[in-house]
Design brief:
Shape of chain B: globular
Number of strands of chain A: 18
Radius of gyration of chain B: 13 Å
Distance between the termini of chain A: 141 Å
Distance between the termini of chain B: 9 Å
Oligomer: heterodimer
Radius of gyration of chain A: 79 Å
Number of strands of chain B: 5
Number of helices of chain A: 14
Structural class of chain B: alpha/beta
Strand order of the largest sheet of chain A: 3-2-1-6-5-4
Order of helices and strands of chain B: EHEHEHEHEH
Shape of chain A: rod-shaped
Number of helices of chain B: 5
Helix content of chain B: 40-55%
Strand content of chain B: 15-25%
Largest interface: A-B, 22 and 24 residues
């Protein structure tokens, strides 16, 4: 009940309760004090009044003895003037009133108010209180040897009560002031901690905002200190928890978003009825959200999987285990969709699933790719077998090419080595004879001098030719030779070339013969190169023939072309009657620096490169070059070139 | 003074002639071979006091001739000069390996050749 009356503020409550307690305590104290005061006053009045009565009894005894009633009355009137006395009676021992004085309006007056009084049985003074405690009766025996009567004094206590009342009022004022001061002190002392508590309460209320706010620590009292510290800690903890929860919620939200973005998600109840489906699910299945609500997932069943497949699934998920597999479903429009699915059961307290989450990925394209891949794999296997054969074949080819390359590289090194040797030979002759001439020219015959000088000259020419041949070959090898092709009549060229040689042949005493049967046939070739070939072959023939004849013939020959149809060839033969070439050497004569081993050939001083250059040139024009010989009877150097089809 | 014999082996006639000139100038008898086969044969048959071997010869190279001679009983008695290609370090190495007494490089100076011959065939006539 008290709580309903009191205001809600704690400090005010404390002050009020304290005030009330003070207020209850003080009047009780006051009443007690006043009572004691009154008792004390009454006792004093009693003693005072008793003394008055005794005095009256003593004095009145002598008047009674002499029966001087007038003096007795005077005595009574005088005595009645004593404050508070309202009546005095004198009786005989039996109680018959002999004199009576009553105070009316504070004036004593002798008149008989009563005739007899009931006196005390024992002969001694007695004090009694009248009804209401406002009046006091004192019986005092009058003694003169023996008891001769009684004095009864009637006293009013009004004065004492008035006194007590005054005292009571003084107490009230004092106590009120004291109470007020106490309440103010209490209020002043309680104000700060109470404010602190209020603030703490407000703060605690605000803590639900979880902002991590802190309040000032109260150092005034240990309890409040603990309270504020605890509140601050709680606020900090709450804030951290809030942050963690917010973060976790955010992550969860993002995970859900990510899941929804990537996956097809549906939630069903424990029987498989759909309770939720995300946008992807709707997109893939082709159903509207409303159509699926409460519908069993079986709606998607394509009938592809056997009953055992789903039995196995239910067996797994109904005991709370996750189930994963690829399912072929049918969507609303009847299209078959492959879903890689996971079903995750949610378990209640009794370990029974109360809902299932289905998370799927559409693997339809993957599946079709898989099938294609299988087909391709099969054809690939076939192809692999074929490829293996090809690889074997190619490896063999590469090995052959590599061997050839190594061989070519070896030839190249040999070429460099041979060139350096071949260049040194004429150089050595030149240097040797030049030095001999320098040292001994005075002691020499003029013929010897001339011979040595000629050697130097000839060897210089030989060196020059050699260098030219090497450079030509180098150019051909490096693909840097310039070929200035034009269609020429090979017969005309051979004739003009032969005219120059005619002189030399005649000078050597040899016969010669030229036969041309090529008419107007043309060959597409660089005339300088063709001229070089013919010169080389002619000088070769001349070099190795000491007697007999040199004959040149040009003929035409038609052959089947590789590409079908006919191909006309020009065939050239340059024959001599020299000592011939052994059969096993016929192929080698066109190799670089190859000379038939014989000191006789060596004496001819060829570079060993001429025929090789001829071969390179003719082959450049897709022609052929070869040699024919009968040892001891002579040789023929031949080539053939494609004639231009000018018909 | 007993004349010494020098065998000149080279497939190039002009080089044989040039070498002969230097040898004659030193006052020695001359034998000539135009290929490796002849060189080996003449060396063994005629036992020349000095053999000059060109490297690049038909039938057999100078190195082969030198090696075969050294393999003969008393093969050490031959004084052999191998004429190598100038600047071909591998040839010089090979000349040493097959046991050449000396080697000179092409193109050589007849004067230098005369000095080498004089070194290997000291003239006893002065004594």
């Amino acid at each position: 009940m008290l709580e309903k009356i009191l205001p809600k503020r704690l400090d005010i409550q404390v002050v009020i309760i304290c005030g009330m307690m003070i207020l209850l305590f003080v009047p009780a104290y006051l009443i007690n004090e006043a009572r004691q005061e009154i008792d004390y006053v009454i006792e004093a009045i009693k003693l005072e009044t008793k003394a008055v009565a005794q005095n009256i009894a003593l004095t009145s005894s002598k008047y009674l003895v002499i029966r001087d009633y007038a003096s007795l009355e005077n005595l009574l009137v005088r005595s009645a003037a004593f404050p508070g006395v309202i009546g005095i009676q004198i009786t005989d021992p039996l109680g018959n009133v002999v004199s009576d004085v009553i105070k009316t309006d504070d004036v004593p007056e002798a008149r008989f108010s009563v005739t007899s009084l009931e006196v005390p049985a024992e002969n001694k003074s007695t004090i009694g209180m009248a009804e209401g405690g406002n009046e006091l009766f004192i019986f005092e025996p009058i003694v003169s040897g023996s008891s001769i009567g009684w004095v009864r004094l009637h006293y009013e206590l009004e004065q004492a009560q008035l006194h007590a009342k005054n005292r009571f009022q003084e107490y009230i004022v004092d106590v009120s002031i004291l109470t007020l001061v106490l309440i103010m002190l209490l209020f002043a002392f309680l104000r700060r901690p109470m404010r602190m508590i209020r603030e703490a309460a407000d703060f605690a209320g605000r803590m639900t905002d979880k902002t991590g706010e802190q309040i000032a620590i109260c150092t005034q009292s240990d309890e409040l200190n603990k309270l504020t510290v605890a509140l601050n800690n709680a606020s900090g903890d709450l804030h951290q928890q809030e942050m963690a929860i917010t973060q976790a919620l955010k992550e969860l939200e993002m995970q859900k978003l990510a899941l929804d973005e990537h996956s097809i998600v549906a939630i069903t109840d424990e029987k498989g009825a759909i309770t939720y489906a995300n946008d992807k699910f709707l997109e893939v299945t082709g159903y509207e959200c409303e159509e699926l609500q409460g519908v069993n997932l079986r709606i998607l069943n394509s009938g592809y999987h056997p009953k055992e497949f789903f039995d196995d699934m239910w067996e797994t998920i109904s005991v709370g285990k996750v189930w994963r597999d690829e399912i072929l479903n049918t969507n609303k429009s009847g299209k078959r969709i492959w879903l890689s699915s996971s079903i995750i059961p949610f378990i209640d307290d009794k370990n029974k699933p109360y809902q299932y989450i289905l998370i799927c990925t559409d693997i339809t394209p993957l599946k079709s790719a898989e099938r294609q891949l299988e087909r391709k794999n099969r054809s690939l296997e076939d192809l692999t077998d074929h490829l293996e054969d090809m690889v074997k074949q190619r490896t063999a080819e590469l090995e052959a090419a590599n061997t050839k390359l190594l061989h070519l590289n070896k030839i190249k090194s040999e070429f460099v080595s041979v060139v350096s040797h071949e260049l040194r030979t004429p150089l050595t002759s030149i240097k040797s004879f030049a030095e001999i001439l320098e040292d001994d020219i005075e002691d020499m015959e003029p013929d010897t001098q001339r011979r040595y000088l000629r050697i130097i000259n000839d060897e210089s020419d030989r060196l020059g030719r050699l260098i030219n041949d090497v450079l030509d070959l180098q150019k051909i090898d490096a693909g840097m030779m310039s070929w200035n092709d034009s269609a020429i009549n090979i017969g005309d060229l051979v004739k003009s070339k032969f005219e120059v040689f005619e002189q030399v042949v005649k000078a050597k005493g040899l016969d010669y013969e030229l036969t041309t049967e090529t008419g107007a046939s043309l060959v597409e070739i660089d005339p300088d190169k063709l001229s070089q070939v013919i010169s080389n072959m002619l000088s070769n023939a001349l070099k190795f023939t000491s007697q007999g004849k040199i004959s040149v013939s040009l003929t035409e020959r038609v052959e089947e072309a590789e590409t079908g149809g006919q191909q006309k060839w020009i065939l050239a033969k340059i024959c001599d009657t020299g000592f011939g070439i052994p059969a096993d050497e016929l192929e080698n004569v066109f190799k670089r620096f190859h000379q038939v081993d014989s000191s006789e050939t060596r004496e001819q001083g060829g570079s060993g490169l001429g025929l090789n250059i001829c071969k390179e040139i003719i082959e450049h024009y897709n022609g052929q070059v070869w040699a024919e010989s009968v040892a001891g009877k002579g040789s023929c150097f031949c080539f053939k070139l494609k004639a231009v089809n000018n018909e | 003074m007993s004349k010494k014999t020098v065998l000149i082996c080279d497939d190039e006639p002009l080089i044989r002639e040039a070498i002969s000139y230097s040898v004659k100038k030193e006052g020695h008898e001359i034998l000539m071979a135009a290929d490796g086969g002849e060189a080996l044969l003449f060396s063994i048959e005629k036992e020349p006091d000095l053999i000059l071997l060109d490297v690049g010869m038909p039938v057999m190279t100078g190195f082969e001739v030198c090696e075969k001679l050294r393999a003969q009983p008393n093969g050490d008695k031959y004084k052999i000069i191998i004429i190598t290609a100038f600047g071909q370090a591998a040839d010089i190495e090979k000349a040493k390996k097959v046991g050449a007494t000396q080697f000179i490089s092409k193109p050589f100076s007849p004067r230098a050749l005369q000095e080498v011959i004089a070194e290997l065939l000291p003239k006893q006539s002065d004594a």
